[in-house]
Write a structure and sequence with these properties.
Rossmann fold, 6 domains, alpha/beta, 20% strand, 46% helix, 25 helices, seven-stranded mixed β-sheet, six-stranded antiparallel β-sheet, 920 residues, 30 strands
């Protein structure tokens, strides 16, 4: 490739000239800067001698960085030769030498390698090279405490991985029972041996150690020859012996290996010579390169104190292939990313990239040919599939355009289209709408579409279950799925989808001469999903319309409530007038005229029933919380029957069996609503004629019960369990909301009772309500004797009402009770009549009057007579009065009476207030 590039350059000489000119132009400022910049002085202080292999690696790494520096450098080298001469003994002489050599030279940075030079600088740096930054590398077992009183220092520690090397040795030689440790007495060997001693306890249960550290050569040779053969050897550097013998790296390794013949492992890459197997090694090149990079950062302006010391360095699994082969260690046993040196290569291995490239090219050509053939085949299939999908898309678009047609018309159109598109002979569509329980079954065969009724299928339940499974499958299915095909043959595919528990749709196609594939199964699934989307639109539209109708109905009910509330006052005033006139007529009719007096009494009762009826209408049209009180269910039943009696046609017969019962605790208005609902449901079920039975009684085991029975159409068994569900109704659309029985069930449950139903289709239905007793005491029959009215004395009363007839009737009633009554038709007239308040003991005033209301009149009267009792007489119910009762009390209102006023209630209220006033 190099020659090829030179040829290209020769052919394009003009381009080379232009390129050279451009590079010169770009580099010229850099050269000018370099010429104008003063060179930096760098001292490389080496612990060992020139040529020492570890030192060679360090220098190579340093030169790799320093030689590429953009800063001009002047590098000076010093070798302390600590492997041959103890640094502690010669340190003073070296310090004296360096003082003389570099007295006139200031260094910008010092790069120190290994422990001896680092310790020398710790001792003499401030004397020889004051304030000069130091970068160290190759320092064994670096401790942060060494930097105390030793500033402007950074570097990288020589943290070799002896543990990893020991682990590696035992993994590659699993039969080893002993580990032999060999080392000299120089500085690095002593530190390395100390590390091994701290690691020995971790391996005691796996291997036994034979420590041959610090022995003379003849003793070491003898010991090595005696070690067991099932051993591995950990080499820690044997350069300096106790007797002063000094060995080179290769001499040391050869000496140890020749005397032991054991697989040797170490942790430094420069020791990977003949005789050494390998290990997890630290490389001197990395140490030197890192140290030089740190030095360059200092030369570029960073402070040494700002550069943290790197306490770890990368290690590598490195091995010598001949020694691996000698000891029978295969390459497969080595860790991943291992570096293997001196690997024997065969001719194929030497040229494997070329051979591999040729093979790849041949295979590439072959693959291209095969790929073109496959691509051509796929293209044809893709074109066919595209035409198929275009047809499918056209069908789906046609479906979408039928979004507003009837559902049955859509299904009739869809099934033949789907069968034709699938190239099938027969097709089946099964649709189940869950809420309405509607089922549609379509079968297409031989160009004819058939609609199948539910009764024509042998196994409808099987098809319903199959459609509800959300399946997508192929194969044989039950013969009953295929109407008209008693023994289906050939291939079949079936898909089914469920629409949010609202609908289930199943599609199936079959053909004797058709083999269906996966893509056709997907097509059928897509048709199924698309049809369900259209069905969803119809169901959502129907639901929306239904909700709109319900909302309109609720608005009508709300409008009815508003209308009822607005006219209640007027109706009560009319009834009050009728009642007062009847009472006055009763007083004028002689006792001997029994029939006219009886007619007057009936008129009075009618006015009271009218008052109750308006009260019921108000309660029915408003939602209020339960007003828990003691209630007589028999009285509610009688009143309810009276209320619905006008709704009964002439052909209706009512049979009532209402017995006196104990009272129950509940809200009379809501219990009244329960009875009304049950009665109206029974009336609707009998279609214009029949017998309605109402029974109220008491059971010792259950409590008070109420039964409403009719002989109408009854309820089908399959929907009997759903009649209490909200919005469920069997009536035609627009004739019911489906909320009546749901509300009834909720009211009965809130009262602690239960409701049950029995029904026989065509014979009738019976609803039974059971409620718990409030007390075991029976209600006593009302005495027919008239209750004595509390009479008045000589008290003066002021009656205020803008309706003259009502005021006149009330005056007549009160004067009959013995009171002196003064009338006023407005609040202003009342204030004028009242004067200073010395005459009147009590005021009865209408609540709603033009100008000043009754409450405002009461407040005005309180300013005159603070303790004056006031009775409000109103045609409204309590909900139309102020919600804050303290406002009424502050105005002196002590009682509220609703029109038409009952004479007994009126007499008792007045007497109670007057007597209380007299006592106070």
């Amino acid at each position: 490739m190099t020659y090829g590039r030179l040829t290209d350059l020769n052919r394009n000489f003009g381009s080379i000239v232009l390129l050279g000119t451009a590079l010169l132009f770009l580099l010229l400022p850099r050269f000018s800067w370099a010429l104008d910049t003063k060179p930096k002085n760098v001292l490389l202080l080496n612990s060992y001698h020139l040529g020492y292999l570890w030192n060679v690696g360090l220098l190579e790494g340093m030169h790799d960085v320093l030689n590429r520096s953009s800063i001009p450098l002047r590098i000076r080298y010093e070798f302390m030769d600590a492997k041959h001469y103890t640094s502690d003994a010669f340190a003073p002489e070296l310090a004296s030498l360096y003082r003389q050599k570099y007295a006139d030279l200031k260094f910008d940075v010092i790069i120190s390698s290994d422990n001896d030079s680092f310790n020398f600088l710790r001792r003499y740096r401030n004397q020889l090279f004051p304030d000069t930054p130091v970068v160290f590398c190759g320092v064994n077992n670096f401790q942060s405490s060494w930097l105390e009183n030793f500033h402007q220092v950074t570097g990288i520690g020589e943290h070799f991985d002896l543990r990893g090397t020991m682990e590696l040795a035992l993994r590659l030689v699993p039969k080893a029972k002993y580990m032999v440790v060999v080392g000299g007495v120089d500085t690095s060997s002593r530190m390395n041996h100390h590390v091994v001693e701290t690691l020995m306890p971790e391996f005691e249960d796996r291997v036994e150690f034979i420590d041959l550290y610090g022995l003379d050569p003849d003793v070491l040779a003898e010991k090595l020859q005696q070690v067991p053969r099932d051993s591995v050897l950990l080499y820690l550097a044997y350069y300096l012996t106790p007797n002063g013998t000094r060995l080179t790296v290769q001499e040391s390794i050869d000496f140890v290996y020749q005397n032991s013949k054991l697989p040797m492992f170490t942790a430094w890459s420069y020791l990977l010579e003949d005789g050494m197997v390998g290990g997890k090694m630290l490389r001197g090149e990395d140490q030197g390169r890192t140290a030089a990079q740190l030095a360059m950062r200092i030369l570029k302006g960073e402070k040494a104190e700002d550069i943290p010391v790197q306490k770890t360095a990368p290690t590598y699994y490195m091995f010598d292939y001949p020694m691996l082969k000698h000891f029978g260690i295969s390459l497969g046993q080595l860790p991943e990313d291992s570096i293997v040196l001196n690997l024997d290569q065969s001719l194929f291995e030497r040229y494997k990239w070329l051979v591999g490239g040729g093979c790849i090219f041949i295979f590439y050509q072959f693959a291209v040919i095969i790929g073109l053939l496959i691509t051509n085949r796929k293209r044809k299939k893709a074109e066919q599939r595209l035409r198929h999908e275009e047809s499918q898309l056209e069908i789906l678009l046609e479906f979408s355009h039928m979004a507003k047609v009837q559902l049955s018309e859509l299904l009739d159109y869809a099934l033949p289209k789907i069968v034709h598109h699938m190239s099938a002979e027969a097709g089946l569509l099964f649709l189940h709408l869950h809420q309405s329980e509607e089922i549609q079954i379509l079968f297409w065969e031989n160009g004819t579409l058939h609609r199948i009724s539910e009764k024509e299928l042998d196994n409808l339940q099987y098809m319903t279950d199959l459609a509800a499974q959300s399946i997508s499958m192929s194969g044989q299915i039950s013969p009953s799925v295929w109407p008209g095909i008693h023994s289906p043959s050939g291939n079949q595919i079936v898909v089914s989808q469920v629409l949010e528990e609202r609908a289930s749709l199943m599609l199936a196609v079959s053909g004797c001469n058709k083999i269906f594939e996966d893509n056709e199964l997907r097509d059928l699934s897509l048709f199924c999903i698309d049809l369900l989307k259209l069905i969803r639109l119809r169901l959502d539209e129907a639901l929306r319309q239904d909700l709109e109708n319900r909302l309109l109905h609720s608005h009508k009910l709300e409008a009815l409530g508003t209308f009822t509330s607005s006219i209640a006052h007027d109706f009560n005033n009319i009834l009050a007038t009728i009642a007062s006139c009847c009472e006055m007529a009763m007083d004028k009719i002689p006792v001997t005229m029994a029939i006219p007096r009886s007619d007057m009494r009936q008129a009075l009762k009618a006015s009271q029933r009218g008052k109750k009826l308006i009260r019921r209408l108000l309660d029915f049209s408003r939602r209020e919380p339960n007003r828990v009180q003691q209630v007589s269910l028999c009285r509610l039943a009688e009143e309810s029957l009276e209320m619905v009696s006008p709704l009964l046609p002439a052909d209706f017969k009512v049979e009532a069996d209402i017995k006196q019962t104990a009272t129950i605790l509940g809200d009379p208005d809501k219990l009244f609503l329960v009875i009304i609902n049950l009665l109206t449901n029974s009336i609707s079920a009998m279609s214009g004629k029949g017998v309605l039975r109402l029974q109220v009684g008491e059971s010792p085991e259950e409590g008070v019960f109420l039964e409403v029975e009719d002989n109408g159409c009854g309820i089908e068994p399959d929907i009997l369990d759903r009649i209490f569900d909200p919005f469920f109704t069997t009536r035609p659309k627009g004739e019911g909301t489906g909320l009546g029985l749901s509300v009834v069930d909720g009211i009965i449950r809130s009262h602690g009772g239960s409701i049950s139903v029995k029904s026989i289709p065509g014979k009738g239905t019976c609803f039974r309500v059971v409620l718990p007793l409030a007390t075991q005491a029976l209600l006593e029959e009302k005495s027919n004797a008239p209750e004595a009215l509390p009479m008045g004395g000589d008290e003066y009363l002021l009656v205020v009402d803008d309706d003259f007839d009502i005021a006149r009737g009330m005056k007549h009633t009160l004067e009959k009770l013995g009171y002196c009554v003064t009338l006023a038709s407005s609040a202003n007239e009342a204030l004028a009549e009242y004067g200073d308040g010395g005459l009147f003991s009590l005021v009865l005033t209408d609540y709603d009057m033009p100008g000043m209301s009754g409450l405002e009149l009461a407040q005005a009267l309180q300013t005159i007579t603070p303790d004056l009792p006031v009775i409000l007489v109103t045609g409204f119910d309590n909900r139309s009065l102020p919600a804050d009762k303290s406002t009424l009390l502050a105005a002196g209102v002590r009682s509220i009476i609703h029109k038409p006023a009952d004479s007994h209630l009126l007499a008792r209220s007045i007497r109670a207030l007057l007597d209380d006033t007299l006592r106070s």
